[in-house]
Amino acid sequence: MDKIEELVNGLRNQDNDYAYQCLKQLEEECGSSDSVYPYFDAITEMLYDPNSYVRTRGIILIAANAKWDRDNRIDEIIDELLMHVMNEKPVTARQCIKVLPQIAASKHHLADCIIDALESANPQRYKTSMQSLICKDIQNALKSINRVQRKI
User: Fold this and answer.
1) For the chain, how big is the Rg over CA atoms in Å?
2) Positive or negative: CA dihedral 58, 63, 66, 68
3) Where are the domains of the chain?
């Protein structure tokens, strides 16, 4: 088993600290190479995990791989990914919202559906303490995506 495969497997580890370290290492790797991209299917499966931490890790790594997505695999799962904008867990929703500009920057043709998902999100479904945070995350994501679109 190679190092990347070991880290990908570690994303589901019961020890959240260890799993988080695996995530950070994989994110760093995605910044400089496409060596994590061959594990895209395993990462996508994480979107459906009952554990919200695992779902969040999957969302973050899908976004980190957007620039390497030569096979348009994100296009195939964009609807499933965007469902997490309003994930039952507000922390997972916030993480999803925060990485969407990264996807839009690499996959310009998906920007409109990402914008639609953000604009139709309903933060009122969360506790009052989270609503303003999620609203701010959505506004920041929309600003970032609009900046990218103006450069195109």
Assistant:
1) 15
2) negative
3) 3-151
Instruction: Compute the distance between CA of residue 26 and CA of residue 152 in angstroms, rounded to an integer.
Output: 29
* Stated pTM of the model: 0.95
pLDDT band of residue 150 (cuts 50, 70, 90) is confident
Residue 144: partners with Cβ closer than 8 Å, 6 or more residues away: 101, 104
Do 81 and 65 form a contact (C-beta atoms < 8 A)?
A: no
| Superfamily covering domain 3-151 | Leucine-rich Repeat Variant (1.25.10.10)
Q: How far apart are CA 16 and CA 96, in angstroms?
A: 19
pLDDT at position 112 over 90: yes
Return the closest-CA partner of residue 100 out of 88, 118, 86, 87: 118
